[in-house]
Amino acid sequence: MTIVTRKVSLTVNGKAVSADVEDRTLLVHLLRDNLGLTGTHVGCDTSQCGACTVHIDGRAVKSCTVLVGQADGSNVTTIEGLAGHNELHPMQAAFRDNHGLQCGYCTPGMIMAAVDMVRRHGGKLDEATVRQELEGNICRCTGYHNIVKSVLDAAGRMEMASAAE
Amino acid sequence: MKADGIGARLARKEDKRFITGKGRYVDDVRVHGMTYAHFVRSPHAHARVKGIDISEAMGRPGVLAVLTGRELVDDKIGNLICGWMVHSKDGSPMKMGAWPAMAPETVRFVGQAVAVVIGETRNQARDGAEAVIVDYEVLPAAADIKAAIAPGAPQLHPEAAGNAVFNWSIGDDKAVDAAMSKAAHKVTFELENNRLIPNAMEPRAALAEYNEAEEHFTLHTTSQNPHVARLVLSAFYNIAQEHKLRVIAPDVGGGFGSKIFIYPEEMVALWASKKVGRPVKWTSDRTEAFLTDAHGRDHLTKATMAFDANHKILALRVDTHANFGAYMSLFSSSVPTYLYATLLSGQYNIPNIYAEVTGVYTNTAPIDAYRGAGRPEASYLLERLIETAARTFKVDPAELRRKNFITSFPHQTPVIMAYDIGDFNASLDAALKEIDYAGFPARKEKAKKEGKLRGIGFSCYIEACGIAPSKAVGSLGAGVGLWESAEVRVNPVGTIEVLTGSHSHGQGHETTFAQVVADRLGIPANQIQIVHGDTDKVQFGMGTYGSRSGAVGISAIVKAMEKVEAKAKKIAAHQLEASESDIVIENGTFKVTGTDRLMPLASVALAAYTGHNLPDGMEPGLKEGAFYDPTNFTFPSGTYVCEVDVDAATGKTSFVDFVAVDDFGRLINPMIVEGQVHGGLVQGIGQALLERAVYDNSGQLVTASYMDYAMPRAEDVPSFKLQHTTTLCPGNPLGIKGCGEAGAIGAPAAVINAITDAIGNNSLEMPATPDRVWHAIQSGRA
Q1: What residues of chain B score a pLDDT lower than 50?
Q2: CB contact (8 A) between residue B60 and residue A79
């Protein structure tokens, strides 16, 4: 059995990263195993649960569906890089303030997906849209009630912040 | 109310690490020299293992070892056990089939492990496992209850004739017969309680390390009760003696019951780490989780409720077959017996109850406690029966319930439980008001004009939490005591560590437990650290399940705090030259009442640790522990009512409104309590509308991924309207009842009662998928 490896270079949370990995390596495993960024979680094998959601070039992507080779040269942001050191992104703060998490396992993926949702919809988000857009992220603890509240709250905060700029 | 005290909606202390990706779950832990385990699992539901050829696998790159069930048995690793003894009505003990952690001879469900491959990397272990060749002789399988009890059914265990685990009963058979014979009305109902798969979002995982010089193991594992894990692993499974085994359950990503149990994989990881002389990590993938996590529910029940001419309940007879899967999981026997049939009186005066429960082995994954554990099954049965009765009698379903409510307490039911307190009318009234029940007929009429079928459904549940006291559960067959421990350490600078035997895997203990201490001392919650989940730190504890951490875990903390405060008051009185009885605790100080003389907590603590000026004979230090054993279960109760629209053309149900009114006694942090209810409700709605574990006739699990098993998504469920009514539990110091399971217990009946009300056909099983609802509409029209 021949294992093919390749060298990949990408930017993760603002830092240039390169690694020799097997061709079959998924982006989520590069992040977790090689870079120690364990905030990105694996919750299923079928790209359904969304716990592994990160941003690639600003868009939310399930990092378990991406081979590292496909991410070569791209700009990846994980939950650890969403805000500056000791700062919270408005979405992170809204999840805390609205009790939008319990066990915390789906939370990084939820937050990364929700940030992209607000980017795409801006202030036009309403409850029905948020619920529909969360189709790709499963939470077993919260019943989604407070996640929806958190996303709507953060959308308001982000709208105000961008208006102030 | 103090800012950080009891009743405050304090944001959670633990959240910052989770929202910034700094949580530390088992799979996040990495140690030097770590290897990876991948299990070889049976593709057959029932088969004899004729041989295992490991030669090719051993030659694969990075494969360090291939270990089989035979070697495990040869090394005298013990079989998995069920720790709760239940006797059949003829007095014979339950029939526990042998369950080795990896099967040396016979596999009895798809996914059961027969061998494990240890590799240098995750992929190498997986590649190695694919090269292991197992020679199976396939045997006929019994994939569900009906198949397993049919004449001539394949037999799973030589110990259990007819695949019967036990035939257990509770209540007075003859008294029920007599009452039934005098009844004016009888309502008989047959139903299924659908099989569910818990699906905590973090899959199970284990990281086992063996230190040869110390002959000591360390296990990081996804457990709701690390001390129980250590006890069972040492006392029954022969892994190591307790003092040579440290079990750490760090951040755990949800449990819902499924992480109570000790599973084969952590046993094998520990054993293998010693065999290969390297740390071994195993992390379940989602399909393995579907195949091997303990499933929940799966009952077939026939029940009859008898009423007098005034619609008062006279008697209830219940006959239930409960699926156990292929083996008896750790607490499985208690679930369809003492956690189910003892709640069959619900919120109602039912003078006579008799229930018979037959446990059945099938060639499926083991079944054990899943959120609610027995109580959702009891509540669903009762609430469909009484709803059916109301429709038969053509009376208001809310009023039929009210007519039969228990209104005086304490109330002894005919099925062991003695309800201590409650106010069922209060929660029903609040729910009727919140949903505007009076306005329902007009809303239904309006919906009809819009082409929708509108329905409303009730569920009045009661449950038993804080499972206890130890003496009582011991008399019912439990192999453990069900108390909780706490230790309060006041540091010399006045900060506090609270060590608890409870375990948080989403419940927010780091916040609520700190609020209780903050409230008592009048200090900020951030001055208090909650320590849990490590057998080296916490002396002992029974863990978190059955909504017990508030009622039992917090009560233990209160008991330890009382001792700390008593000693601190003695020190303050001595130093302030006052009488001990004059010392009061205010805003983090020990004050002589009616004066301005005081000592801050930090000064008292420092005095305790310097020991320079303590009362004669007092030991230095300020640290106390307590073991708290409750006097009774607690009994949360409430009313859930939901209003739905059903689309007659598609059978699709959508929620118009969902009201949940609960009586949980004292709330420590209402925000967290509401979160628990939301989550429970959605698991209950999942059971009612979406979720069902499906095995085909050959015993293959058809629903073994998120492509096939319908987990509730955000769009499937509504936002909720929650209210609380309050009767304080008299059985514990703060009057707490517990809130973790109520939603999952109460929601299913409310949803199904609403749908059947909407479509005018009561013949409907869970999950009420659009397909089933559409067919029910069609057959109702025929």
Answers
A1: none
A2: no
Question: Residue B735: left (phi > 0), alpha (psi -120 to 50), or beta?
Answer: left
Residues B482-497: tens digit of each pLDDT: 899 999 999 999 999 9
Please list every residue in chain B whose beta carbon sits closer than 8 Å to the beta carbon of residue A45.
285-287, 705
- 3-state SS, B654-669, equals EEEEEEEEEECECCCC
Calpha distance B440→B726 (Å, rounded)? 27
CA distance A4 to B543: 46
Q: How far is B40 from chain A (nearest CA, A)?
A: 18
At residue B193, the 3 state secondary structure works out as: strand
Candidate CATH numbers 3.40.50.150, 3.30.365.10, 3.40.630.30, 3.40.50.620; the one for domain B299-467+632-781: 3.30.365.10
B170, amino acid identity: I
d(CA B259, CA B293): 8
Which residue has 């716990």 as its token pair?
A51
Q: Where are the domains of chain B?
A: 18-24+33-140+204-283, 299-467+632-781, 483-628
Which chain B residue has its CA at the smallest distance from A82's CA? B20
**Angle CA(A10)–CA(A15)–CA(A21) in degrees, nearest 5?**
40
* Residue B232 parent element (H or E): helix B226-235
Of A48, A103, A148, the CB nearest to B202: A103
Sheet of B653-663: strand order equals: B453-462, B637-646, B653-663, B721-724
Residue of B nearest to A128 (CA): B715
**The CATH number of domain B483-628, selected from 3.20.20.70, 3.30.465.10, 3.40.50.1400, 3.30.365.10:** 3.30.365.10
Range(s) of chain A covered by CATH 3.10.20.30? 5-81
Q: What is the pLDDT of residues A18-31, one digit of tens each?
A: 999 999 999 999 99
End-to-end CA distance of chain B: 60
User: Of B250, B620, B679, whose CA–CA distance to A143 is shortest?
Assistant: B679
Contacts 24+ apart (CB under 8 A), B703-708: B703/B197, B703/B290, B704/B287, B704/B290, B704/B291, B705/A44, B705/A45, B705/A46, B705/A48, B705/B286, B705/B287, B705/B290, B706/A44, B706/A46, B706/A48, B706/A49, B706/A138, B706/B286, B707/A46, B707/A48
Shared fold status for B18-24+33-140+204-283 and B299-467+632-781 = no
- For B740, the token pair is 């973790």
Question: CATH 1.10.150.120: does it fit domain A90-164?
Answer: yes
Closest CA to B335 of B278, B258, B249, B394: B258
A41·B707 Cβ contact <8 A = no
**Pair A75, A65: CB distance under 8 Å:** no
| pLDDT score of A1 more than 70 | no
Task: Name every chain A residue with its beta carbon within 8 A of the beta carbon of B678.
Answer: 142-146
What backbone phi and psi angles, to 5 degrees, belong to B592? -80, 120
Predicted pLDDT at A122: 82
Neighbours of B30 (CB within 10 A): 13
**To 5 degrees, how large is the angle CA B660–CA B665–CA B671?**
60
The span from the CA of A6 to the CA of B685, in Å, is 47
Phi (first) and psi of residue A27, to 5 degrees: -55, -40
CATH of domain A5-81: 3.10.20.30
Both tokens of B604, joined, read 């008292």
CATH 1.10.150.120 location in chain A: 90-164
Class of domain B18-24+33-140+204-283: alpha beta
pLDDT score for B65:
98
DSSP state of B531: E
CB contact under 8 A, B256 and A140: yes
CA angle B429, B434, B436 (to 5 degrees): 95
